[in-house]
Structure formats: C-alpha cells, structure tokens
Amino acid sequence: MDNDVLSDVLRTVRLSGAIFYEVRAGIPWVAESPPGSWMVSRMLPRAQHMIAYHVVTSGQCWAALAEAGAEPVRLEPGSIILFAHGDPHVMSTEHGARTTPVLDQYRLPEAGEGLPFHVDECGDRPESVRILCGFLGCDVQPFNPLIQALPRLVHVGTATVPASGSLPALIAATVAESNAGRLGRSSVLARLSELLFIEAVRAHVESLPSEQPGWLGALVDPCVGRILRLLHDDPARAWTLQSLGREAGFSRTVLVERFRQALGIAPMSYLLKWRMQIAASLLSDGGECIARVSSSVGYGSEEAFSRAFKRCTGHSPAHWRSQRERSGATHPTPG
User: Fold this and answer.
1) 8 Å CB contact between 242 and 232
2) Which helix (H) or strand (E) holds 248?
3) Distance between CA 297 and CA 280 in Å, rounded?
4) How confident is the model at residue 332 (pLDDT cuts 50, 70, 90)?
C-alpha cells in the first residue's frame, strides 16, 4: 500500500484523537449514539468532523447503523468497527436492539478529570463485554478523499488483520494505558487513538479485492497510485498531463483513462482539490500569510489563488481564516 499518500492526507486533514471511553456492560445492554454532527461541537469543538470507532477487548456484541433495515455486525475480541461518516449507530449485546441516545455522556472532560471516561453499564450483572470507544476529529472541507472513500461502516475483524500488522499490539497498549493511571495518560491515549484508526484503515485497504474502484483502491493501483504519489509529493509543481505522464511512465491517454476510471475525476481536477485542502489547512492553522499560502500550493499570483479558493469553497481565503479564528470550531459559515 502507498503509505506516503495516506500519511499526507491524514496530516493535511489534521486527524486528531481526543476523547476516549472504556465501557463495561452486562447482558442485556444497548447504547445508541446521536449523529456525529451533533457530537462534534460538544466533544471536539475545534474539529470540522468526528469519526467514531469501537474496539471490543473482551466478550461479544453487535454493531449497526441506527436506521431501519441496517444489518448488525457481530463483534468479537479484537474487532474494530469504524463509523467514519459520523452516522448514528447502535452497540448492543442483543441482535437488533435499539434505545434512545443518552446525550449528556457526550462531553469534554471537566477540570481535573482525566481520560478515558470509565462507563460501567453492568449494574448488578456480571461483565459480558468490554469496549474501547474512540472519537477523532479531522477536516472534511474542502476535500478529504479518505473520508469520502470509506464506507459508512467498516468492520475490521480478527480474520482481516494481517499477521504482520500492529493492530493487536496497539489494542493491548491502549487497554494497558487506560487502566494504568500514569502521568500523561490522556495524551498517550489520544495518540493511540489515532494509531488504532490508521491501522484499522490499513487493514481495511489491504483486505480489498484487486482493482477495487475508488480512492482506497487507487492507492494500491500501479498506475493511479503512482500518479497520486507524484501529485502529493509535489503539489505546488506546475504539473501538466504531459509532465505527469512522463514522470509516471504512462501515456497521457492511459494516465487520464485510468485515473478517471478509478476516481471519477481528471488528474488536474484532483490536484486542484488537493491544493485547496492544503491551503485550507494552512489558513486554519494561522501561521502563514495568504501570499505564502498561495505560493505553497503552486500559485504565483495571490489574486489567482483567491479566485480558485473561493470557487472551490465558496469563501475567500481571508474569510475562511477569520471564521476559523473566531469560532475555533467547524467549517466557516456562509459569507
């Protein structure tokens, strides 16, 4: 798999792990989450988007999208379930169980309160399942190809995990850190949360059939993966189809055809979207002036960059930055 492209995307969309729960439950038990769009401002106020995932560390349970007709997935120890699009979902010990979300449990830690939140749902019943629940933030605007490409529900079972993968070790480290009570635990759990997500995504991609359409399949395609790597390695370069084809070792016709077939857009359209995502991230971070941001993504003219950015996002670069600075929260409001 082309890890450089994936790493570049994760870095640029500012993936961050922040909130972590350890849930102990008896039988019967059911918990339902509200939409991620509702939770993100309460749990990760500086993020545009929230990703939820759950790791079963002992026992068995079911997971499903919280919608009519959704088929539950059975989870066993070592299983991970990802809800990358922030969909409401249900975790339960009984197939098809539903309930009402308990909204007050989705919050930031209070002063002096460390992570993880320990949630005991056993009551007077013996423990039947233990789950680690992670919530990560990231940007999705103007362009996050990973989130767009991931299914609404991704199940990484023990049979999916490659023998050489580090997922079991990361799960074990997260369990140990959750219970150790050591200094810096919250920061360590945040980093482990990111690593668990990344490793689960890698396991999912490596389980896909050959010639899988879409961005995830493109990462391992000999032709399209090479093109993506070139674009991500040097997005500010004045690429043309001719220079891209020469560097990739394919004719312009093959290059465009394979890229469109895999991703549904032309290489230059993808490059434009990715440049705007880089620019949005730099503007949100606030460390660079607009002229320097425009140069960083290949524009010699600040005016040309501003026009391109507004066409892509609906906002001028200055408005995008000021909105992020004022709200410290989600994507800018319409201007």
Assistant:
1) no
2) helix 241-248
3) 11
4) very low
Q: Is residue 112 within a helix (H) or strand (E), and if so which, with residue range?
A: none
Question: Six-digit token pair at 286?
Answer: 């606030």
- Quick one: which of 203, 137, 133, 128 has its CA closest to 168? 203
Instruction: Report helix, strand or coil for 316.
Output: coil
3-state secondary structure of 134: strand
Return the amino acid letter for 248: A
Residue type at position 284: S
Chain center to CA of 33: 18
Q: Which two tokens stand for residue 164?
A: 């050489």
Contact predicate 17/53, CB 8 Å: no
Identify the burial level of 10 via C-beta atoms within 10 angstroms of its C-beta, where 0-12 means exposed, 13-18 middle and 19 or more buried.
middle
pLDDT in tens, 8-63: 999 999 999 888 999 999 999 999 999 999 999 999 988 999 999 999 999 999 99
Q: Write out the DSSP string of 149-202.
A: HS-SSEEE-TTTS-TT-SHHHHHHHHHHHHHH--TTHHHHHHHHHHHHHHHHHH
- Alpha-carbon distance of 61 to 175, in angstroms, equals 18
Dihedral angle computed from the Cα positions of residues 281, 285, 286 and 292, in that order, rounded to the nearest 10 degrees: -40
